[in-house]
Amino acid sequence: MSSLTLCCLLLLFGLSCEGREILVGGKSNTWKVPESKAGETLNHWSERTRFKVGDSLLWKYNAENDSVIQVSQKDYERCDRSEPIRGYKDGHTKIELKRSGPFYFISGEEGHCQRGEKLVVVVLSPNHNRSNVTATPVSHPVNAQITAKGSGHRLNGAWSSIATACLLLLPLGGLLV
C-alpha cells in the first residue's frame, strides 16, 4: 500500500470518528415553549435523530428569557428545577454527549417545562447494531442541522498533520507506488 493511500485512509478514518455538532430542533430558536401541545415538539425531533457518544448538542435561544437545565429523569418528569445536574443561560449552549443512554433537559424558567419546553435525548451505545433497528416511516421531512465538530470542517491536532502530509504527498503519488 502506498504512503499516499495510507495517509488518505487515516484521514478518512479520523473524519468518521469525530462527533457531530447537532443543532437542537434542527434550527435556531427552537428552545422555547411550544405554540401548541398538539404540534411538533423537540421530543418528536429527538426521536427521529440518532445521537452517538461524542456528538454535541447546540442550543440557540434568547438568553434574556430562557435557559437550559440538565436534570435527572425524576426531575424531568416532575419539571423540578431545584436540583439541576448542570445549568446554562448563555443563549448558545453546547453540551457534549460523553456516554450512551438518556439525557434529560428542561427549561430553567418558571412554568416553561410544564408547558412543554423539555427534551429527552437518547445516545446510542458505541456497540449499537443498526441492523436490529426497525425504520419507522416519517410522514414529513426531518430537519436537522448536523456538522462536523468545530467551526466548519476544520481538523484539529493530529488529523490536521495527517491532512497536511497527504496534501504534500499528493503530487508525489505516482512516484511512491
From TrEMBL:
<comment type="similarity">
    <text>Belongs to the early nodulin-like (ENODL) family.</text>
</comment>
<keyword id="KW-0336">GPI-anchor</keyword>
<dbReference type="Pfam" id="PF02298">
    <property type="entry name" value="Cu_bind_like"/>
</dbReference>
<feature type="signal peptide">
    <location>
        <begin position="1"/>
        <end position="19"/>
    </location>
</feature>
<protein>
    <recommendedName>
        <fullName>Phytocyanin domain-containing protein</fullName>
    </recommendedName>
</protein>
<keyword id="KW-0732">Signal</keyword>
<dbReference type="GO" id="GO:0005886">
    <property type="term" value="C:plasma membrane"/>
</dbReference>
<keyword id="KW-1015">Disulfide bond</keyword>
<keyword id="KW-0325">Glycoprotein</keyword>
<dbReference type="GO" id="GO:0009055">
    <property type="term" value="F:electron transfer activity"/>
</dbReference>
<dbReference type="InterPro" id="IPR003245">
    <property type="entry name" value="Phytocyanin_dom"/>
</dbReference>
<dbReference type="GO" id="GO:0098552">
    <property type="term" value="C:side of membrane"/>
</dbReference>
<keyword id="KW-0449">Lipoprotein</keyword>
<dbReference type="InterPro" id="IPR039391">
    <property type="entry name" value="Phytocyanin-like"/>
</dbReference>
<keyword id="KW-1003">Cell membrane</keyword>
<keyword id="KW-0472">Membrane</keyword>
<feature type="domain" description="Phytocyanin">
    <location>
        <begin position="20"/>
        <end position="125"/>
    </location>
</feature>
<dbReference type="InterPro" id="IPR041846">
    <property type="entry name" value="ENL_dom"/>
</dbReference>
<comment type="function">
    <text>May act as a carbohydrate transporter.</text>
</comment>
<dbReference type="InterPro" id="IPR008972">
    <property type="entry name" value="Cupredoxin"/>
</dbReference>
